[in-house]
User: What shape does this take?
Amino acid sequence: MDKKTDEVVLSFPACKVISNPLAVNKLVGHLEVCKDCCESFGSTVTLRVISRGEQESPYFQIKSIQGTANSDGFDEDDDDDWDILSKYADLLDGEETTPAEIELEKLTQVPEDDAEVLKIIRDWVNVIISDMGVCPFSRSADKAGLPLGPVHYSISRQSRPEEIYSEYWKEVSLLIQRDESDISTTLHILPNFYIGNCEAFTSFTDTLSQSLSALGIEKYIQLVFFHPQWVFRDGADRMGESGAANFARRSSFPMINILRTNQVRLAQKSIPTGLVYTQNEETLMEVGAENLQKMLVERDWSSLMVRKALEEQIRELEAKGKTPPSNRVEYEAKDRSSDDGMAF
Assistant: This one.
């Protein structure tokens, strides 16, 4: 079959930055980094920069080349591999499912309804991020930042890196263009993107972090990432009770938190970052990694809401000079010995 070539040429004459060769080199350098995470870009899709002389923005020539291989990346010979595997299907089906596999299946289930996805994330933000104080500058699922402003939620159902890049940059542009009183921070939710592969998700987010300095946008935004299987890279130093501290970044779905740099700098002046990490580790260790994992899998943090309500009642009584009810000890003892292992 003859090769078919699709070509698109882009030009940005109104963008003065693009006319700077140094800026173009930085952009191309960043795109080279992104190739490692992409499915098509860098393999069947290529980019070439065509110079137009000084003070002129260059052309960007994008080519899509498809050869004799199928568009899905498999050749006809690959069918033989599936025939071989099918012979062992009965043996594989006969194996018992382990508890870890059952848990992973539940952890990676994605609701079809965006409203349900959003509710799960908002519940998590309200309890873990706000009520538990993981982010001291989050008031609720609706308000966060310095100064306090609206939290913007966006959901992308895409699963290919190329599409995620496109939608991510749209969210960055929206945040920068809008006033803080309209959007204080953005949570970009990616329920179908590497939900069961944190390593691949981290490789992708590394390219986003690289863009901050490479493209000079760190003066505008900062990034924080969340994933159901997140492990801090310095986890050996902050594992504590079997990794409870990691749950500060473990959300039900992969997410990109786009923050305003000016707010991050102000927050760092208000409370040292190291102190926030320490407090989070202590708070999460008190709940326990096993309990936090169960809540994450079940997507139910209601038990922590009960705990918070009880603590608020006790503080109110103590503020009034009254003795907290004696059944507080009984409540704690009952919960400590319960079947679900909740240690409140």
In short: The first strand starts at residue 4 and ends at 11. Residues 88 and 94 are 10 Å apart (CA to CA).
